[in-house]
Amino acid sequence: MKFLRKKLDDLHEQVKPGAKYEKFYALYEAVDTFLYTPDDVTDGPTHVRDGLDMKRMMIMVVVALGPCILMAMYNTGYQANLEIERLVDIGSLPEATTGNWRSTIMDSVGYNPNNLLSCFIHGALYFLPIFIVTQIAGGFWEVLFATVRGHEINEGFLVTGMLFPLTLPATVPLWQVALGISFGVVIGKEVFGGTGKNFLNPALTGRAFLYFAYSSEMTADIWIAAPKVDGYSGATSLGALADAKNTMGMDVITSKLDISWWDAFWGFIPGSMGETSTFACILGAVILIATQIGSWRIMLSTLLGALGSAWLFNYASGPETPNMFLMPAHWHLVVGGLAFGLVFMATDPVSAAMTQGGKWAYGLVVGVTTTLVRVINPGYAEGIMLAILFGNVVAPLIDWAVIQLNIRRRRKRCGL
Predict the structure, then answer these.
(1) Same domain flag for 252 and 390
(2) What is the rounded distance in angstroms from the CA atom of residue 297 to the CA atom of residue 72?
């Protein structure tokens, strides 16, 4: 390790300010601080509140995402193996195969949905390329902006680069992944000055760009990574229920798609790779709340807003109302991306409300808007993404209102 340290110290002389390769200092600094703890100390008076810096905070969020990442790889492979087995059984597929480069590996492992290793490897073959492209494309923009500005590379991309792949379907083209994360990092964050200065969640900004720019690739039956042949069906629970042609009500989920509430809770359903398992999201929420990184006020208020409004819509349902009115409140939590969004996206400390009272209002806005979009809008079955982006936009206004109310209350208490 001394050899590596010496090489880095030698390299520092070539990239430090004023040296020949000073433009590459940001890249050098990122590698150096990743491998070694910086020996820099703060000059002058300091006001240390705790020992948790941004790097440790971001790494803790990535740890909290661990269950969702594992579930993303397992369930993606499980859904694909299950569909391939079904297609072989009904004769639509001559033999079990992926029909692409992954078959070189999967043919030796097998396509057994009851085999944990087969499902995990099959899912990893879809998740890892998307993750790697996200890191390369997003990391490129991070390094470029840091180099041009002469700043250090910020650790905020650790979380953005992990959240973005988890919000995508397994079958999304890799060039769209690169385009989406580029838009999210550049337009959603860097143009405003980088991490800490953005008012929109960068991962959701990139996801929203892909949704509106390539809606057919993001909303059609693309949720199961299996060969597309006659008889193929990959609709999500929300998509199937929101279909105006469907008149089966909740039976389309419980009978036609054969999905139980517990299947949805554990995450054994089609959907975006990291968003299917409510259980994995709960594990992540426990870690974020225990480490005081994620706001429990935002999580709870978003949940209350979403389920409370869903109960009202369900209570008001009638023979002429759209199908989504028929979904009971407790189903809203386990289908779509509500659980993932309220735990990992809505609690973004930069783009969410910052005052304690404002967090309650912000969460209620996100929760109610999520259900509103799901139930009222027949063209878009999922609502958490738009709801959080809307919450990001109004969060400064919410904080301002809370601060003004506090000022007014204190003036009144002091008789001013």
Answers:
(1) yes
(2) 27
